[in-house]
Amino acid sequence: MIKYQIENNISPNEFKELLVKSTLGERRPIDNFDRIKIMIKNSNLIITARDMGILIGVSRSITDFAYCTYLSDLAVDLEYQKKGIGKKLIKLTKEKTPNTTVILLASPKAVDYYPHIGMTKHNACFLLNKGDQLQ
User: Fold this and answer.
1) What is the phi/psi pair of residue 74, to 5°?
2) Does residue 130 surpass a pLDDT of 90?
3) Per-residue confidence at 41, pLDDT binned at 50, 70, 90?
4) CA distance to 54, 105, 117, 130, 134, per residue, from 127 (Å)
5) End-to-end CA distance of the chain
6) Residue at 125 is within a domain
7) 48: in domain
């Protein structure tokens, strides 16, 4: 049975391992452990999914609990995907932040997943990446 809970202080090692097992590690700084620790430390809403104590899913967000919630990482171990765990993690994130709009940037592999579960695609997102300068 999968156990879901808020765990704002998950182990950076567990988090890194899950990122790798979910393929999200391809787009995260998994080789920079200090950065992984800071990512966890500065998140203010982390919801986990565990199977017999093993971390198999995570929704890591930054929110003001009033207007917006940026769901930065939604990761589910590949062995557990297609079982509704990601959808449940998003649902729980929304339940904990009911007055906010949940915002996320889809990874290329997941771009078709989010509309499938009922999320609205938005075409007006803009990025200022590390190293970019405003003109």
Assistant:
1) -120, 110
2) no
3) very high
4) 34, 10, 25, 9, 11
5) 52
6) no
7) yes
| Closest to 64 measured CA to CA, from 104, 97, 105, 103 | 97
Q: Comparing C-alpha atoms, which of 3, 81, 13, 17 is closest to residue 48?
A: 3
Domain of residue 51, residue span = 2-116
The pTM assigned to this predicted structure is 0.93
> Do the beta carbons of residue 36 and residue 11 sit within 8 Å?
no
pLDDT per residue as tens digits for the range 9-26: 899 999 999 999 998 888
Whichever domain contains 7, its CATH number is: 3.40.630.30
User: What's the CA gap between 23 and 76, in Å, rounded?
Assistant: 9
Tokens of 124: 């007006």
Indicate the residue type of 20: V
Cα 15 from Cα 74, distance rounded (Å): 11
Residue 57 is predicted with a pLDDT of 98
pLDDT for the residue numbered 6? 98
